[in-house]
Every structure is written in structure tokens, then in C-alpha cells.
User: Fold this.
Amino acid sequence: MTFAGTAGRAGRGAHRRAAGVWVPGGWTLARVATVIRRRLGVVYRYPSSVWNLLHRLGFSAQRPARRAVERDEQKITDWREHI
Assistant:
């Protein structure tokens, strides 16, 4: 996620702390909701509420722009068939 907007003091501080943190599987909406609940005491029950909040604060979803050069389609196919 990227921070592009002007958020309140808590939003900016949370972004700085989260920016250098690697989370296995990435920052899901459920994980963000958990951080908000633990740090600020605010409960968001629905993922769409968290998404709307992040969007208003200037965050956006980040996805790879392209596939890895090292990607081996045959190995991926074999792995999928094995499972």
C-alpha cells in the first residue's frame, strides 16, 4: 500500500511503522482491521469498511506490474497437478 493523502496524526504514524514491516501474505483487510482495533480501539466488522477508510486516507492496493522473469510455467503446471 502507498500513502498519498493527508491523514490525521495517527494515520501518518501508523504508515511509517507499517512501511518497513514485511507481513507474510501481505497486508489483508482483516490484518489492517486487527491493527486498527489493537492500536486505536476501533472495531470494523466488514472488510468494505476498512477498504473505504484506507481509500479515503490515500492508500491503494499494490500488485506486481509484471510476472517474474524466472517464472517456469511447466513447473507451475506440474505443481498444480500434484496438489
User: Anything to note?
Assistant: The radius of gyration is 17 Å. The helical segments are 9-19, 29-40, 47-56, 73-82.
